[in-house]
Design brief:
The structure is a homotrimer of 363-residue chains. The first copy, chain A, is an all-alpha fold. In chain A, strands 1-2 form a two-stranded antiparallel ribbon. The longest helix of chain A has 33 residues. The radius of gyration of chain A is 20 Å and the shape is globular. The termini of chain A are far apart. At the A-B interface, helix 13 and helix 14 of A face helix 7 and helix 8 of B.
């Protein structure tokens, strides 16, 4: 436990862990204070995702490069997956889909934008490895296109639900298969093309394997339990704050889920290692499209009230496509300056504003 | 006045200034000859925009680099802005929106296309500065995406006008803020990335400051007065010529407004300075999206009969997106040959043809 | 005839020529066995397209570079054109349009994907000539955009058929003119930018001119006759197999028509000559958009029951756009590895699956 406690002392974000017991207590004592529960659960999930990502890295560090890489890649979006699974079990498909679309937009616009802005404020023009950035952007583009084909093709042409259902399952199988091949590609045959995480520094030394595995299991369970409270309270809280469900799912949940990736991405940009920031942002977005989304569709046949399809509402399709295309075009040049970050953040702000103002019935 | 008269003697385009008094006389004597007034006002506006751009450059040259660049950039699309403001005051929102969308398409397809064609007929393959072209294309892409997000997201989802109204105002504020940061970027922190206009040659020596300021004020007033006649006559004239309002706004007004940018862009291409042509075309298009469009929205709260939103009709959204994406992809390679120009012009011709044939009720 | 017979002995694909007499016999003896006739006609068309392409190359080889290139380019998609003309005469516009859209998608996703995959399995990372690949991708992008503008602009705005009709004719004229200029560009002024076919090897020596011309004429006639049987049987056969007409046109017909291009493209990739594969795939797709499509529109005024327009159903527009944009972005980097091929094929598989599942009334 010592390394864990040391980490907590050193990382102020982890002090928020205090909210984990608070949210459970509050759920017991004031089960109807939905707005309070919502705020508390958001505050509790954020540090848990940081802990989860450190535990994953520690396990990965112990198990050798290939298996470690696999673990890191597969568990990298575990928090998002757990939250989405909870929403799935509760039958809140709107929230599940926002939990797929949101992280793609957050990674390609917000994390990339802040990285470019922070890096650009320190360095005049930043250059990064064009070859790998381009290939990763290409993979992301294709992955997202694959995810969106059914929405794009079918929302115009048909509303027959049998069609969408069958298509979503077939698509999920194809996406997962592609994800497997992608792992083979990035971890085995062409690993040199992908930026690897830097050796952990200072207080972030890998934990002993026992502690890491225990933390992984314990924290996942805690996230699941807090997600329960979060999903239950989100609707009421959104109403109380005057926020639309789309805004909560797309923006709030996605930002909370991405908290753990931010420190590495942003400090990489400050250290003029934009490769790392771009790799994290694009890799994470690809993973949501190729792994989290299809797993949710397939799992919905077992745990949801009814099967879920991959039909997104038209506005979400437009946002995902624009975000991905933007990231593809922007990273294409392998150079960045602060204003590129400003523009990415502006597009993100416009999305957020649109979702905030969108009348609920239109979603 | 001498330098002004010298300019007029040397530049045949300025001989069209003779139409300025003619159009005022005609408006007095034959207020109902709408078709005549339309033709005369078009012929009068064209040379005025050339004069305006020369006056702006002269003021810019006198005020030093930073302020001069700011003036040049901000007043570069003054003619378009004045015409659009006149249409706004008359409540002709269709024409105002065409005056936003048209110049974006004209710059990215027509001016770029003619530049590539003229340059390519003289030089086998032309190379230009890829770094700045890419960055400018990236800025343009993001600016246009920002402009279109509300149309793209909302035309599918909702027609609630309260939503579109609020979104348009919020968006306008964001766009103007981004424009300010963009000025800081291109004129101060990263000015070396942006192609600067070449020193004026021959007959185009900068005017004395007094003449320049006087011309600026006088010509702006004249354009406003001629625009009045233009906007009033355009609808009737369009009918007489069998043209749709969309065609007039998108094609005729936009081409007239862009006349002043053409000589520099085209002669740059002939002199194998494609950097300059690409900079003018992409910069001008960005400026419309980031500055002219939001200013019109905000101003509409004070001078229009009702506030204007940024909702474009779907066909315009498609055209703007295609034009921008095309310019982004084409300038991405940093090389050009004559056939690239032909293809850009063909896409422009197809847009023009589509608008010409489009039944008016569909717009 | 000796070189022809030698070719047939050496190329197992040509053994399928045996199905040509079989399909005629079957059409006479069992005119109602639609499913059988469909399968036989597909098996007969495939080797005929191979023969046609060899005959075209032989004529081209004899007539010198410029005329030869022109012939090669113009007759390169002759098989697709003949099949589409037969469908046009039968008034099956759905099939004609699928025969335009299908080959674009097959070339940009399937042929490119298999080339990248086969090449990547043999070579770790393949580099190819970025300059020409980019220019060709740019041309393809613009050509496809031109083809789609009317569908994109008008399907949202109007259903007035007079408008679509007039627009399609005007567009066809523009496209054919552009095609002519494109020939001038790629065969005369800038021929060095375009990968030329490698000298024929081994058994594929050019035939004597008499044999080549005779084969050209004879095979074209045979393809026309077999197409007749194919077009007549396709609807019934599709029903029997549970396939939608869109799937048959988009996938089956397009794959059959592209058979002749596959050996060269795939063996080029294996020999690390990706330039060749990319050139074939992108060039062939451009040709469909700039030449085959407009010719079909113009010819429809003479041979079809009613004139045909260039309005595609929305799903086809999305697929063509995505396929073209994907090819443009992927070839932009000038590098490839096996996983890029996998992703292209996955997008293709998703399109195929979507079309297979799509309820017929939605098409």
């Amino acid at each position: 436990m010592k390394p864990l406690l040391k980490d907590i002392r050193q990382n102020p974000l982890l002090w928020l862990l205090a909210f984990v017991p608070v949210v459970f207590a509050a759920a017991k004592l004031k089960p109807d204070a939905q707005t309070l529960l919502f705020v508390l659960s958001v505050l509790a999930i954020a540090p848990l995702t940081v802990l989860l990502s450190h535990a994953t890295e520690s396990v990965a560090a112990k198990t050798g490069d290939a298996v470690g890489g696999l673990l890191n890649a597969t568990l990298g979006n575990l928090a998002e997956l757990v939250i989405a699974l909870t929403a799935l079990r509760a039958g809140q498909y709107m929230l599940v889909k926002a939990a797929i679309a949101g992280p793609i937009v957050v990674n390609t616009l917000f994390i990339l934008g802040v990285s470019f802005l922070l890096g650009g404020l320190k360095h005049h023009v930043q250059e990064y490895n064009r070859v790998s950035a381009r290939m990763q952007a290409g993979l992301l583009f294709l992955a997202v296109v694959a995810l969106l084909v059914p929405s794009a093709v079918s929302h115009v042409d048909t509303a027959s639900s049998g069609f969408t259902q069958k298509l979503s399952v077939g698509l999920a199988v194809l996406l997962v298969a592609t994800y497997g091949l992608g792992m083979l590609f990035s971890l085995k045959t062409h690993r040199e093309l992908f930026a690897s995480a830097p050796p952990a520094e200072g207080g972030e030394a890998p934990w002993p394997i026992g502690l890491a595995l225990g933390t992984l299991a314990g924290v996942t369970l805690l996230i699941a339990l807090v997600s329960d409270i979060f999903v239950e309270s989100v609707q009421k809280a959104a109403e109380a704050f005057g926020m639309t469900p789309a805004f909560v799912g797309f923006i709030i949940v996605a930002l909370v889920g991405a908290v753990s990736a931010m420190p590495t991405a942003f400090s990489g940009a400050r250290k003029n290692r934009l490769d790392l920031s771009v790799g994290i942002a694009l890799g994470s977005a690809s993973q949501i499209a190729l792994f989290v989304a299809p797993v949710l569709v397939l799992v919905s046949y077992f745990i949801g009230p009814t099967p879920m399809d991959l039909q997104f509402w038209p506005g979400a399709v437009v946002m995902i496509l624009i975000a991905t295309l933007t990231a593809t075009l922007v990273t294409n040049s392998g150079r960045s300056a602060w204003f590129v970050g400003v523009l990415l953040l502006m597009v993100y702000a416009i999305f957020a504003m649109t979702l905030y103002l969108l009348p609920p019935r239109a979603q």
